[in-house]
Structures are given as structure tokens and as C-alpha cells.
Design brief:
This protein has 4 helices and 5 strands. Strands 2-1-3-4-5 form a 5-stranded mixed sheet. The longest helix has 12 residues. It is globular. The two termini are 25 Å apart. The structure holds tetrahydrodeoxyuridine. The site of tetrahydrodeoxyuridine has 16 residues, from β1, α2 and β3.
Length: 124
């Protein structure tokens, strides 16, 4: 799967985001080393810490299905679901990614027009 295809899937996930408190909708598409793709979206809660980011939701979906080896993740996010800037994972999500992924794990971000890729090592 190409980086652009994975970014498209992250946009599909973003459309299901539940973000009534921040209004900031995020979608993530996580590709396993064996080629499966898992989606996640941020799911907020009236109690802020009970909410979960899109990236961790995608990891949780993959782990639940029995997959723990990952190749890359694409992330899209924007206010009211409108993507205008690159969205990189928060510190907690970087930490959770580092539980399963090596330093060369690829993180693909999208600003609505272009993609920009990082390695997990660069962001940690
Ligand atoms: N959020 C994500 O889901 N992923 C990110 O990479 C950045 C932030 C969510 C958390 C919260 O629901 C909203 O975006 C605003 O921070």
C-alpha cells in the first residue's frame, strides 16, 4: 500500500471521529507488516482524559485483532474535519507507538494537499 493510499484511508477514519469538545477530528490508518490495515479515530469524552487519540485507537484495534508488528501509519486531522495542516502524533501516542515499533517506523502526515513523512526515531 502506498503512502498516499494510506493517507486516503486515514481521511476515511477521520470522518467518523467523535470530537464534540475540541472540534478537532483526527483519523489514523495503520498498516501491519503482513499487509492488514486498521483504522482509528479520536473519540472524545466529557472527562478529557477518558478520550482517546486516533493513533492509539488504531493500535488498539490492531492488537485486538492479533497484530503487533507495524510498518507505517498515516494521520490526518483538522478543525471540524477540514485538513489544513500536518497533524503529528501527541507525546502519549509516540510513546505507545514506541512500545510496538522501531525507530524506522514511518509516520505519514497529510495537510490536505501533500504528504510529509517522518520516522518514529525523528519524532521521539
Ligand atoms: N488528537 C489525535 O487524535 N491525534 C493527534 O495526533 C493529535 C490530537 C486528538 C485528541 C483530541 O481529541 C483532539 O485531537 C484535540 O487535541
Amino acid at each position: 500500500m502506498t503512502d498516499n493510499e494510506l493517507a486516503d484511508l486515514s481521511i476515511r477514519a477521520l470522518k467518523n471521529a467523535y470530537a464534540p469538545y475540541s472540534g478537532f477530528k483526527v483519523g489514523a490508518a495503520l498498516l501491519t507488516k503482513s499487509g492488514e490495515c486498521f483504522l482509528g479515530c479520536n473519540t472524545e469524552n466529557a472527562s478529557f482524559p477518558a478520550g482517546i487519540c486516533a493513533e492509539r485507537a488504531a493500535i488498539s484495534a490492531a492488537v485486538t485483532a492479533g497484530f503487533k508488528e507495524f510498518k507505517k501509519i498515516a494521520i490526518s486531522g483538522g478543525k471540524n474535519g477540514v485538513i489544513t495542516d500536518y497533524c503529528t502524533p501527541c507525546g502519549v501516542c509516540r510513546q505507545v507507538l514506541s512500545e510496538f515499533c522501531g525507530k524506522d517506523f514511518k509516520i505519514i502526515t497529510f495537510n490536505g494537499k501533500n504528504i510529509k513523512a517522518y520516522t518514529l526515531g525523528e519524532l521521539l
